[in-house]
Design brief:
Strand content of chain B: under 5%
CATH superfamily of the largest domain in chain A: MetI-like
Helix content of chain A: 55-70%
CATH topology of the largest domain in chain A: MetI-like fold
Radius of gyration of chain A: 31 Å
Structural class of chain A: mainly alpha
Shape of chain A: extended
Radius of gyration of chain B: 32 Å
Number of strands of chain B: 2
Oligomer: heterodimer
Structural class of chain B: mainly alpha
Helix content of chain B: over 70%
Order of helices and strands of chain B: HHHHHHHEEHHHHHHHHH
Order of helices and strands of chain A: HEHHHHEHHEHHHHHHHHHH
Number of domains of chain B: 2
Number of domains of chain A: 2
CATH architecture of the largest domain in chain A: Orthogonal Bundle
CATH superfamily of the largest domain in chain B: MetI-like
Largest sheet of chain A: 3 strands, antiparallel
Strand order of the largest sheet of chain B: 1-2
Strand content of chain A: 5-15%
CATH class of the largest domain in chain B: Mainly Alpha
Shape of chain B: flat
Distance between the termini of chain B: 54 Å
CATH topology of the largest domain in chain B: MetI-like fold
CATH architecture of the largest domain in chain B: Orthogonal Bundle
Number of strands of chain A: 3
Distance between the termini of chain A: 63 Å
Amino acid sequence: MSAAKSTREKVEAGLPRRRRKELTFKLVGLLATTVGIVFLGVFFSTLIAKGSSAFKQTFLQLDIELSEDVLAPDGELDLAYADFDGLVRTALRAQLPEVSGRSDRRALYRIVSVGAAYQVRDLIAANPELLGTTQSMWVPAASNVDMLIKGNIDANLDEALRPVSDKQIGWVRALEEAGRLETRFNKALFSNGDSREPELAGIKGAVMGSLYMLLVTLVLAFPIGVAAAIYLEEFAPKNRWSDLIEVNINNLAAVPSIVFGLLGLAVFINWASLPRSAPLVGGLVLTLLTLPVIIIASRAAIKAVPPSIREAALGLGASQTQVVFHHVLPLAMPGMLTGAIIGMSRALGESAPLLMIGMVAFIVDVPARLTDPATALPVQIYLWADSPERAFAERTSAAIIVLLGFLLVMNLTAVILRKRMERKW
Amino acid sequence: MATAAFYLGRGRSLALVGGPGHGLALHSLPGYYGYYVAIWVVLPALALLSAWVLLEPKLIVALVVNGLPEAYRNLPAGELNLLVNNIQNLAAGDVISVAADDMLQDAATQFNAYAAKSRQVLAVLALGVAGLGGVHAWRLINPDLRARNRVEGVIRWFLIAASSIAIFTTIGIVLSVLFEAIRFFQKVPATEFLFGLNWSPQTAIRADQVGSSGSFGAVPLFTGTMLITAIAMVVAVPVGLMTAIYLAEYSSARVRGVAKPLLEILAGIPTVVYGFFAALTVAPWVRQAGESAGIDVASESALAAGLVMGIMIIPLVSSLSDDAINAVPSAMRDGALGLGSTRSETMTKVILPAALPGIVGGILLAVSRAIGETMIVVMAAGLAANLTANPFEAVTTVTVQIVTLLVGDQEFDSAKTLAAFALGLMLFVVTLFLNVIGLSVVRKYREQYD
């Protein structure tokens, strides 16, 4: 037998094994690809399962008698001292007259949110003429009742293991049967600032804080980033200095974000003594953080403009500055804007450096100025995730959904912009 | 004002040569004369403004202190500072720590008066300087003035300044972290920090205080960081690499078109969201799985944080590996396939060895990312500095400690606060080292095959 034949036999003998290996390799690859995608699916489904219920909120209907005797005992209404709580309690007792005994009554009061009294106060403040009438109002239920109605607290659990008692459940069911309990859209989530009470806590303060910060970041980072990119691409001589800048920018893009927070703390707060927790400082830190991203994207956009455009303009007698500002920049603008949006979306999701400059405080008021103390949406998520109340877990998921919604819109804008403005040379 | 200056300058340049239509007699386009005047209006005024803002507080404080009674002026520096703080707070209408006596009250009124006067003076001065600048430029205008070149010179300086900000940022990071770290090492010897095995960052107020040992041995933090990074890499490297290989070699274009953007979504999710997911979903899973397997798992185990971090890094590893694999010339692939090797053999024996440097560079970048990652570990890993390699126990990391040391009020002279900057310095140096190597390797091999 010739040697050729034996080689062929050897190869054929090995073929099944090699094919098996090939198949295994391919399957492992497929598996790896699915891991990421499956995680994404699990992630979004748990998020939506947990968070979607936070957009609804349980409300109780109470007939509140705005009696003059209680609110204005001396004939004068003092909003700061009037006993609105008492009114809410009386109305609740009128609704469930069979409840008696001190401890039972106290348990009964706990099924309505402390926000109910504020709601009554705001009503009276806006319409003082309602004094003495009886108003039917929908007031928020306490967060534990809300959780019970949404099924997040298991009523079949042993009484000691759940935050609502059997009696409270009975009252809630009674109110439900009387048609005095409803779940409605949770406006408070979007119109309130932070609160210790989950049913009153909202993300407006955090969203405004994030907006102010992004505003500062956009106003500073976009012009500076574009200017730096123009210089590096169009003007910079090829020497050590521009090499240094280049390496520097690439490295800055990979520096951990928390280090930028340390910089902000040491320079802006400790040295320049700017106010802590202010969106201004947050915006400055995020500017430094997003600058490399914007510079790198803008440089790519400038590079994509064909040299023939520059040469034509130069040939017609334009100066180099004129070439850049009249011809290259307009053509590269879509790419730069895309880079800016991507940088902004990174800035929006960033929280670690903001922890360093004190934007983690519990802040109830919605910030109105750049120097007001504020927090940001991702930091609010961090704060709520740390809260022990069950209802906050739900709200955290809802806040995450809102944050991801913002990011989705920004990224879609970037993609559409790129598609629309894309030019093939 | 700048707009007015622009039109004035433009108008004058045209007027000098006899109105529109004679523009050719000018050296530059009329608009440039306008810009020239506008720059002269804006820049000096801006310079004055920023100088004023920098100097004003010190000047006013000095004036107020001069106005204080003799006894107060000779206080030691620290007490004087306190006094000035109180005056400032009083002037702003805030509550202060001591009873406001007449002297403080007077000083506060004086402070406010100076501040108001300063604002008036500033407004007048700024307008004056702007006006003077404008007049100066206006007089300079003549047909031979090389206005375009001068305007372009200013623009170029602005561009240079903008591009140097990146450098200044780096210098700022290095200096701020370094100075505070040096102050830390004056209090705590560097050897203790680098080699000490015990981390409990408390500083005693009194000597006999309980639990005020105050030891700053950072080794448990380094090992904790390495443990979590290692877990993340065990997840991210095989999965990311195999994903890149599958998408590059096996999948159809349609699958690739769907899978790639989906994986990129993973990279776009904010880390705080991963942290929430790790703490509230993955950690209980890990705990339950551990219990059913009879292992005692801490509720803030390193495993949960590491797993989620690994998933976060998958897109980074897979896109950098994809770049490296695509950079290998197709002649090598075709040659191997032509010699009869299967696709998997081509991949493992030819393409991967050729792409290895690029892949390693990418992995280094991923490691640096994992070390610097903050929110996931803050939310899902523990605070206890355990010196352990057991992934089921709670460990803490460098970034977690920086956050816990610096969140809340801090004073810039306690070892506790400064320790955070020393940790930041370590973090910066290590990630910088990894980044420089990773970036240069990735770039070098990308170019080599081009």
